[in-house]
């Protein structure tokens, strides 16, 4: 393997694809989805417009947007066996594990092999799965989706059993816009790797959910909230600066900080930080925002490391009453748009993904019969 002398651990810095889906400038902290800056999208876009943008590399006109809304609405209901699975699985199962299994099951209920239809079906049904499991595990009736409203609106409706107000819908929509797409992150890479074997979209998305679940990736938002709740348990002695320094001294990771690409403030975190401030004040959770800011300052001073998308999203979701172990599921609800967009892109110009590993083991061992080992 002399031709591969250098190992890029974690594939750092390797460019393996070209894409029209997103651009990240890790030095300036800029993020663009298919031509549109994240700040522009955060201010103007609905999640459905972002889905269309990522799938088609352009914004929809009104007619196209209406059509997409209608298709999503008509696909939100889950097949009965998937609802049965959600009702019968363990109530204390990890929500991301339940979501992964349920999404995998959806493959069995598709009437065709059309990728566009599959993308719409899985985008429409992920929120229904998440809400249904949360209700079941809390001993509540499953709420069927409505034939009206946006993805954000319906998710909150199915989760809480009542229609959300405009402010809540807007918050959820913005979270979905901010998490939709992010280049060759681990879950999208997984999705493309599965797609590249000419497997199907449900397999690719199921694999991507498995990758997103881990705390070094999407699982970090739940881990951030657990960190903040650990601090809260210390009551009057809670000191976010001391907490951060102690963690660093123990060589532990501060969840929600650091990024392979960003060497500055994650531009999505700018929006989430603002939301976190507003919502924590509105809901009487000021301390969460204050602690978060103290952690940001300490991490900057101690390690020159900034927060990523998962840091402030935790206090945002907490303030709007969502259980911490659902946060990564909400990330999934959004990132499905990026995954499916990359699936289309990979399929349109496919090549099997198959890197090499440098063998560092023995080569000339003699066989020893089992009784002599
Ligand atoms: C997401 O890729 C994407 O785009 C992902 C994402 C998306 O939208 O898809 O942006 C979403 O996954 C965000 C990241 C969520 N994960 C976390 O918040 C977990 C905590 N962060 C890290 O463990 C870490 O920063 C990673 C996993 C995000 C990045 O890992 P890298 O690029 O492999 O960097 P590293 O672990 O090698 O760290 C480099 C240095 C080390 O110090 P030295 O050994 O060089 O002295 O930075 C330190 C690390 O110890 N460091 C941290 C730290 N993150 C990096 N130290 C303390 N706390 C941290 N969070």
Automatic annotation (TrEMBL):
PANTHER family: CITRATE SYNTHASE, CITRATE_2-METHYLCITRATE SYNTHASE. Keywords: Transferase, Tricarboxylic acid cycle. The keyword Transferase applies. The keyword Cell cycle does not apply. NCBIfam families: cit_synth_II. It catalyses: oxaloacetate + acetyl-CoA + H2O = citrate + CoA + H(+). This is Citrate synthase. InterPro entries: 2-MeCitrate/Citrate_synth_II, Citrate_synth-like_lrg_a-sub, Citrate_synth-like_sm_a-sub, Citrate_synthase, Citrate_synthase_AS, Citrate_synthase_bac-typ, Citrate_synthase_sf. Coiled coil: none annotated. SUPFAM superfamilies: Citrate synthase. Pathway: Carbohydrate metabolism; tricarboxylic acid cycle; isocitrate from oxaloacetate: step 1/2. It comes from the Bacteria. Belongs to the citrate synthase family. It comes from Rhodohalobacter sulfatireducens.
